[in-house]
Amino acid sequence: NPELFLVRGKRLLYEENYGGATAEINTALSMNGQRAHYHVELAKVLMRKEGGEKEAEDALRKALSLVSDSPKLTGLLAQALYKQKKVEDAIAQYEKAIRDPKVKNAEARYALGRIYREDKKDYARSAEFFGKAGQEFYGDSLMVASSYDEQGLSLEAKGDKAGARRAYETALNAEKEFEKAYCDYVRFLVKFGDPGKDRELIKTLSAEYVKLTPRGECAAEMSALSK
Fold it and tell me: N or C: which end of the chain has fewer CB atoms below 10 A?
C-alpha cells in the first residue's frame, strides 16, 4: 500500500530525517506516480532539505501536470522558484495563483508583498499586496496582524507616514499579543512621531512589548524606552 510509505515519509519529515522521508515517499511514487499529492509531499520534504529546491520544483511541476491550475500548488511552485533566486519566475507563478479574483490566496499575496519590497523595491505594490493578504487571512488574527505590520513597514519605506501609522495600529488591533508589531510601531514613532504627543504612547507600547516578550529581539531597546 503506497499510502503506508507516504505516512512513514511524513513521520520522518516530522523527525527532520529528510533523507529517510525522501526515500519513503519515492517508494510510494514508484508504486503509484499518478497521485498528485505524493509529488506535493515529496516537494515539501525537498524544500526543507538543503539544496533540494530544484528537485522540489520538478516534483511540483509533475503534480501540476496531474492537477492543473491549482492555486495552492502554483504558490508552492513559486516558493520553490524563489528559494532558487528565480525572482521573476516566482512572481509570475504567485500572480498566476491569484489570477482568479474569486479565489482567496492570502499566502501568495503575503509572499508577493515581501518580494516586491525586498527584491523589487516597489513599496506601493508591496503595501497593496500586504493589505489584501490581511483581508484574506480573516479568522487568523496572527497572520492578519503580521500582514498589516508588514504593510506598515512597506508604507514607511515608501514615505507614507500616515498610512504606516494606520497599518501598525490595525496590526495591534487585530492581535494584541503580536509582539513584533509593538517593536515596529515604537521604532516608527521614535523616528517620525511627535516628540510631545507620542511620548506616552511610546512608553506604553514599549512596556507592553517587554511584558509580552521580556527576552525578545527588541527587549533591551523597548525596556529603555518604556522608562
Answer: C
